[in-house]
Amino acid sequence: MTLFKIKDAYPHYKEEIFDGKDLKKFDVYTDTTNEKIGTVYDALIDENGYFRYFVIDTGFWVFGKKVLLPVGRAQMDYANQRVYALGLTKNQAEALPEYTDNMTVDYDYEERVRAGYRTSKSAKTNYNRDNYKYENEPELYLTQAQNHGTIKLYEERLIAEKQRQKAGTVSVGKTVEVRTEQASVPIEKERVVVERMTPTGERPVNPGEANFREGEVARVDVYEETADIRKQAFVTEEVNVRKEVERDTITAQEKLRREKLNVKTDGEPTIKDKR
Q1: Which residue from 143, 147, 145, 146 is spatially nearest to 71, judged by alpha carbons?
Q2: Global confidence as pTM
Q3: Are 97 and 109 in contact (CB under 8 A)?
Q4: Distances (CA, A) of 72 to 143, 206, 274
Q5: Are 46 and 2 in contact (CB under 8 A)?
Q6: Each residue of 127-151: b (16+ CB within 10 Å) or e?
Q7: Is the pLDDT of residue 28 over 90?
Q8: In terms of CB atoms within 10 Å, which end of the chain has fewer, N or C?
Q9: How high does pLDDT run on average in the chain?
Q10: Can you tell me the distance from the alpha carbon of 35 to that of 82, in angstroms, rounded to the nearest whole number?
Q11: pLDDT higher for 111 or 144?
Q12: CA–CA separation, 31 vs 100, rounded Å?
């Protein structure tokens, strides 16, 4: 079973578990003589999130030695920020294996710790490293309500939130494109054609019929068309700029932990589970 330091398992353990109190500042006393024997240096939690040991810095009581105290042998006093080590004696603490920060707490080391706390009533039976469970020894690892007060059970949940952030800017503008084109338009011009014809035969003019005079004798208006080619602007396309919201669902998968309450009984007491 892998053990973790409390801050590695619960980075905000002070607020989440101990109502803002720092467990590492709790003093440790014996429950028999009410003698201060050190302070809580740390706590160890198993991979399922259960408290298993308090790391006790014994200070001058056992020459600064750090030892492990199973949670079943601890009684919490949150009001006075104290932990009482139930039945722990100085000789017993001196016989416990020393704990250091950089060590690996494996089965063999835990067996040495458990041997220091086992009594004839809680003597080890036929357990080994392959089948040992902390539940096998409730005297060492079962947290009693009268010793720990209110116990908070936690579970992890996935919190899905979204954040709005600027992804970029789209700028729409216009440029002027110049090209040369040709346009043709047909035009008409009038011209005057004066035709002279010689009569086929000469005939005399009756007296008084001839009208000899000078000046204008005929008027013909002559017209012509001229090309009127000019530029004029027309609307060829309308551009409507707007934003559209595309919706998508992001799915994430995580492994979540949940604490369960284990209730052990001795005998056949009546238990009511009130929620």
Answers
A1: 143
A2: 0.53
A3: yes
A4: 5, 160, 24
A5: yes
A6: eeeeebebeebbebbbbeeebbeee
A7: yes
A8: C
A9: 81
A10: 11
A11: 111
A12: 25
